[in-house]
Structure formats: structure tokens, C-alpha cells
Write a structure and sequence with these properties.
By secondary structure, this protein is an alpha/beta fold. The protein is built from eleven helices and 13 strands. The chain starts with a strand and ends with a helix.
């Protein structure tokens, strides 16, 4: 069993990964500055696994704070680094914030690893590094295209920083996971995606529209060169994605030769259109998702899905959940959020009437 630092561990993918790590008996230390997540997530994790994770409220950009954290939590074996800003549109408006948050955090961690004897590193990358590929599905050898946004650029540069650092340091090893589109929630509905404000991503927009929190979903374009005209993505269940980190960690801890970086696509291998997702969501959950078609969203790529055979063969990892069950989990989570809101309102009303 390992002691694992999970940065961004109260976030969407991070929290699901903490659960899967704890289920395998690993000890987890979460570092998160709660800039895009909520401390209550720790209770959700405890409800599932029975273990309240160690937590430090630190920004990974703070080198001194991170150094102290490593001093306090000694003998960390591995880092899984999620903490990053991730909204494409925001990155266009605030590029320096993105370069600073995403790159300085990474550099700090890589610098602190040898200081504190940490040898293994798992990095959250994205299919965004492929841009619009010429050939589908994409393998890890598919050429990297120029980034479409500062956010995408931070992922490309981060991958290069990791290659160069590990190349220069014989004792390190690392795995870069390129995620496709994570969706869904833990089947218990104790944790899930918690978008702050108006969601950017498709699934939280769908669930909030079905719940009546938004009047209608805007489908960004039906004139793409795809069978139904809407964009195609590879939607991966978030628990399946979380499990990919656990097997990546296992591989790093067992690997004999150091100074190695491996890259894996983490997707289902299947592309689904926006309309297919809407219609399947409506069917499996027996709810309506009012939607209207609007113009294309700037920067969207037309279609992408993964060839995940490398992860299937080497990591022995495969996406297991069906899209139907995943869409059911997303709806169950939205309903759990509604209950939480109602409970909070009730408590606030009671408090104000006392
Ligand atoms: N979409 C809509 N309406 C919405 C939201 C999304 O029609 O309200 C469509 C998009 O146009 C796209 C699909 O749903 O065709 C998926 O969109 P998301 O925003 O959920 O996800 P993206 O494919 O844009 O995001 C992915 C990764 C990001 C990455 C980005 C880079 O999840 O991490 O690609 O392009 F930054």
C-alpha cells in the first residue's frame, strides 16, 4: 500500500480517485485550495469509504506551503496531480492566470519531489492536446496539434515539462493520462460534479435543465460533418476514469526501470453525438431535456474519440460502465443535490425563525 498525495482531491475527478485509492487500501493526503470545490466533498468521501481523508488547504502555486506539507506528511510515495484551472473560455480571457496556476503548480511539485524522496508522478492531461485530429480514433502516437486555447496549451507544455524533467532525473518515473470527456457520478450519489455557476460542460447542463434549474440546453451546432450534425465525443464514466489512476499508480510503484514516462488515452473507444447523449439521457431517466439548436461554439472540435487499446493492454484497464448507467448516475446525483439544497434551506429557515 502506498501513501499518495492527491492534488485537487476535492474536485470532480480527484474526489472519485480518492475513493478508489482508499478502497484499495492506499493512504491519501489531499491538497486543494477549494477554488473550484467544496470542503463537504470530504464528508461524501467518508460516507462511501468510511475514511475521512487527510486534507490540507494549500494552493500548489505556494512553494513554501507545499514544502511544509511534505515535511508534515512524510514518506509520500507518489503524487497524482489534478489541481488545475480547466475552463477553456476563461483561459482565453485570463491566460496568465492559467499559465501561472497550471504551470507553476506543476513545476513546484516536480522540484519538491527529489527534495522529499517522492519518485512517482501521475498527471492529468486531456484529449485537448490532439486538437481536431486528421485520423480517428486517436492513439497516443497521433500528432499533437497547436493548442486551441491557453488551457490546452498549459496541458501541452505540462507534458513537455514532465518529459524533460524525468529525462534529466534518473530516479523519477511518471504516467500521463489523457482523459476524454468524463461524465456521471459515484453510484452512491455521495460525490459527483459540482459546477460553480453556469456549467460549461454538456452533462451538468443537461441535468440542471432536466431539473428545471435552466430553461433549456443550447446545442452548439447541428451542421457539423457528422451523422446527425452535432459534435462527437468519447464520454467516459468518472469512476472508470478514477480506476485508471489506481492502475497507473500500481504500475509506477512496481516498475523496475526508472526515468520513464508513459502516456495513455483514457476513453471508451466509442464516439457519441450531443443528440445521442440527450436522447439516451431522456430515455434512461424518463425525463425531458428541453433543448434548442444554436450556432457553433468557438473553439469546439467536430469529433474525437479514443483508441484506448494501449491502456487496455498495458494497464489492463478498460472502461466498464455503459453510457446508460453513467447517465443514470448523473441524474441520481442531480437529484441528491436538490435534496441537499432543500435540507440547507430548511435549516436556514429554522435558524432565522429562532
Ligand atoms: N455542448 C453543447 N451545449 C452545452 C455544452 C456543451 O452543445 O451547453 C456540446 C459541445 O459543443 C461539445 C459537447 O457538448 O460538442 C461536449 O462539450 P463539453 O464542454 O462538455 O466538453 P468539451 O469536449 O468541450 O471538453 C473537452 C474536455 C476539456 C477540454 C476541452 C478542450 O472535457 O477538458 O475538451 O476542447 F478542455
Amino acid at each position: 500500500m502506498a501513501k499518495v498525495l492527491v492534488t485537487g482531491g476535492t474536485g470532480y475527478i480527484g474526489s472519485h480517485t480518492v475513493v478508489e485509492l482508499q478502497k484499495k487500501g492506499h493512504e491519501v493526503v489531499i491538497v486543494d485550495n477549494l477554488s473550484n470545490s467544496n470542503i463537504d466533498v470530504l464528508n461524501g468521501i467518508e460516507k462511501i469509504t468510511g475514511v475521512y481523508p487527510l486534507f490540507e488547504n494549500i494552493d500548489c502555486v505556494d512553494y513554501v506551503g507545499m514544502d511544509r506539507m511534505f515535511e508534515k506528511h512524510r514518506d509520500i510515495d507518489a503524487i497524482i496531480h489534478f489541481a488545475a484551472s480547466k475552463a477553456v473560455g476563461e483561459s482565453v480571457e485570463k491566460p496568465l492566470m492559467y499559465y501561472r496556476n497550471n504551470l507553476v503548480s506543476l513545476i513546484n511539485l516536480l522540484q519538491l519531489m527529489p527534495v522529499h524522496g517522492v519518485k512517482s508522478f501521475v498527471f492529468s492531461s486531456s484529449c485537448t492536446v490532439y486538437g481536431q485530429p486528421d485520423v480517428l480514433p486517436v492513439t497516443e502516437k497521433t500528432p499533437i496539434k497547436p493548442a486551441m486555447s491557453p488551457y490546452g496549451n498549459t496541458k501541452q507544455i505540462s507534458e513537455e515539462i514532465i518529459y524533460d524533467t524525468i529525462h534529466a532525473n534518473p530516479s523519477y518515473n511518471g504516467i500521463i493520462l489523457r482523459y476524454f470527456n468524463p461524465i456521471g457520478a459515484h453510484p452512491s450519489a455521495h460525490i459527483g460534479e459540482l459546477p460553480i455557476g453556469t456549467p460549461n460542460n454538456l452533462l451538468p447542463y443537461i441535468t440542471q435543465t432536466a431539473m428545471g434549474l435552466r430553461s433549456e440546453l443550447k446545442v452548439f451546432g447541428d451542421d457539423y460533418d457528422t451523422p446527425d450534425g452535432s459534435c462527437i465525443r468519447d464520454y467516459i464514466n468518472v469512476v472508470d476514469l478514477a480506476k485508471a489512476h489506481v492502475v497507473a499508480l500500481k504500475r509506477l510503484l512496481n516498475i523496475k526501470s526508472k526515468q520513464q514516462v508513459e502516456v495513455y488515452n483514457i476513453g471508451t473507444g466509442k464516439g457519441l453525438s450531443v443528440f445521442e447523449i440527450i436522447h439516451t439521457f431522456e430515455k434512461v431517466n424518463n425525463v425531458k431535456v428541453p433543448h434548442t439548436i444554436v450556432g457553433r461554439r468557438e473553439g469546439d472540435i467536430e469529433q474525437i474519440w479514443a483508441d484506448a487499446s494501449r491502456a487496455n493492454e498495458i494497464l489492463k484497464w478498460k472502461a466498464a460502465e455503459s453510457v446508460e448507467d453513467t447517465l443514470k448516475s448523473a441524474w441520481k446525483w442531480e437529484k441528491a443535490l436538490k435534496k441537499q439544497r432543500q435540507q440547507k434551506e430548511k435549516e436556514e429557515n429554522e435558524a432565522s425563525s429562532n
